[in-house]
Design brief:
With about 250 residues, this protein is of the alpha+beta class. Helices cover about 40% and strands about 15% of the residues.
Length: about 250
């Protein structure tokens, strides 16, 4: 069988590509049902400017986000490019995560239904019960200390500490936050986190017991570095999802 090569787009302007990728993530979140009205926010550090990040202006639905209407905000919350303003909780959470965690180039915060089912269940944890859940082995931090709306940067700093070196934070009574060096990697983790939470929910709702992965397999995986494989797969997956947006006539690139 001959393998078919899949071309991943490359842009000559990294800032333009950053805008396109982040807008695509917003519109994909809407299509998958991860959004929550005008709330929830995805941010991305502006290439070449670590003190600035891209975010949607407050009031837009995720389905309305385009590459051109994203605003650029500094770490003090000042809009330095674009029309509109950054929502308070988005600034308080995202600015401090970007500031505190070097790997957090992209920060996706959302309230997807099945991630929130797990977050809202007392003492619940994502179980290692299938191949997709194993991708999150020792990669989820759990923040069980809900303190209300993040209306000050101290809460963002607390949430940043709660990641504890992991790329996924599940916050009790709140939602899920994913960080990564690229939009593709962050969105891939958000997508599969919601997917495995949904699978766990379905088994729990059926009354059946989860078929847990053996400790032998888990210990073997603990000694393997899956990061390069996940990153490469995430790039291919995100490129494919953007092609689907293109076929549907989405305006995310506008």
């Amino acid at each position: 069988m001959t393998a078919t090569a899949v071309k991943i787009e490359t842009a000559t302007d990294p800032v333009r590509q950053a805008r396109v990728d982040l807008a695509a993530a917003y519109q994909l979140a809407n299509r998958f049902g991860y959004d929550d009205g005008i709330w929830n926010h995805f941010t991305l550090t502006v290439p070449g400017a670590d003190n600035l990040f891209l975010v949607k202006p407050h009031g837009l639905l995720m389905s309305e986000v385009q590459a051109s209407n994203l605003i650029v905000v500094d770490r003090d919350g000042t809009v330095v490019e674009g029309d509109g303003y950054v929502e308070t909780t988005a600034f308080c959470i995202h600015s401090r995560i970007h500031e505190t965690i070097p790997e957090a180039v992209c920060v996706l915060h959302a309230h997807p239904p099945y991630c929130n089912w797990l977050a809202d269940s007392d003492g619940a944890r994502l179980e290692m019960f299938d191949q997709d859940s194993l991708r999150f082995l020792d990669r989820i931090a759990y923040d069980d200390d809900y303190r209300g709306l993040a209306l000050d940067t101290a809460e963002g700093e607390r949430m940043a500490r709660a990641f504890d070196g992991r790329p996924v934070l599940l916050s009790r009574s709140h939602g899920v936050t994913v960080i990564a060096p690229t939009v593709a990697e962050a969105f891939d983790d958000l997508h599969y986190m919601e997917h495995v939470c949904k699978r766990q929910y379905r088994v729990a709702s059926s009354g059946n017991r989860l078929a847990m992965i053996s400790q032998t397999v888990i210990k073997r995986l603990e000694n393997q570095d899956q990061t390069p494989y996940r990153a490469a797969s995430a790039r291919l997956h995100f490129a494919a999802l953007k092609r689907e947006l293109d076929r549907s006539g989405s305006d995310y690139m506008a």
